[in-house]
Amino acid sequence: MPYQYSLAHLTVLSCPPPELAYVAARAGYDYISPRLIYMGLPGEPNYALAENGEMLRATKRALASTGIKVHDIELARITDDLYPSKYLPAMEVAAELGAKSVLSSIWTPNLEYATEKFAKVCDLAAQFGLTVDLEYVPIAAVNNLAGAVKVLREVNRPNAGLMIDMHHFHRALDTPEDLDALPREWFHFAHLCDAQGQIPTDRAEMIRILREERLYAGEGGIDIAAILRHVPVPVLSIELPHLARVKELGTAEHAFRCIEAAKAYTAAHGLSAPFTKLEKVA
């Protein structure tokens, strides 16, 4: 079964959600993964649709006219002094748009606190039929597979999942075979991109690459095929920010090259999705 593809917002973050849907449709994606939770990062646009009724209506029109669906929304970060209920408006919009998942990551070193808050986010999302998929990030507090697995086992929520990002997995020096021992129901989707094989030792350079200069599948030094063979997911969300290429090519062409490279790579390596129904969690 061929993979289905979602266009992650960070790939073309300058596109508001309606435009994201149109760009994704023209390029041949099945889904979009919009950033509906504003994080307040420098230069980050605010696409919190729960606070912008006009943009929400435009997004609905774009989805209806293109047939594109929303796969997941981001990013429900677990930080210090977090009130999980702050994510409720975004969850409500996500459910209204037919999304399946909420992406989350942990940024506080207080892991007991983080586990408690992550569990609460899961409980809030469950009422909307949404999974909460934990992504570990090399610059975050939970920054490798072992740390993410520890949180998920302690949380023990039926709608909690594990989201593997090719870049982060490679930077964490994790081993693909270690994924085989994990519950299959944890896996709902993965982030696809490539990057330079050499891992930066400088934190600022690590951040720059992960936010500004990831590469098309097969262009870098990550053994994506080795990872995907151990990640039983039906959907690949392409998160591939490359600011210089977007400036040179435009958002639509960059998004198109992302999915074309992904399809060529998976075909060349004989990769396919598992026979899994793409349904929301009951």
Proportion in helices: 25-40%
Radius of gyration: 17 Å
Q: How is the largest sheet built, in terms of strand order? A: 3-2-1-9-8-7-6-5-4
Q: Tell me, rounded to a whole number, the average pLDDT.
A: 95
Number of helices: 10
Which class best fits the helix and strand makeup?
A: alpha/beta
Oligomer: single chain
Distance between the termini: 24 Å
Strand content: 5-15%
Number of strands: 9
The largest β sheet comes out as:
9 strands, parallel
Protein name: Sugar phosphate isomerase/epimerase
Organism: Propionivibrio dicarboxylicus
Keywords: Isomerase
InterPro entries: IolE/XylAMocC-like, Xyl_isomerase-like_sf, Xyl_isomerase-like_TIM-brl
Which properties best describe this structure?
TIM Barrel, nine-stranded parallel beta sheet, disordered C terminus, alpha/beta, 10 helices, 15% strand, 282 residues
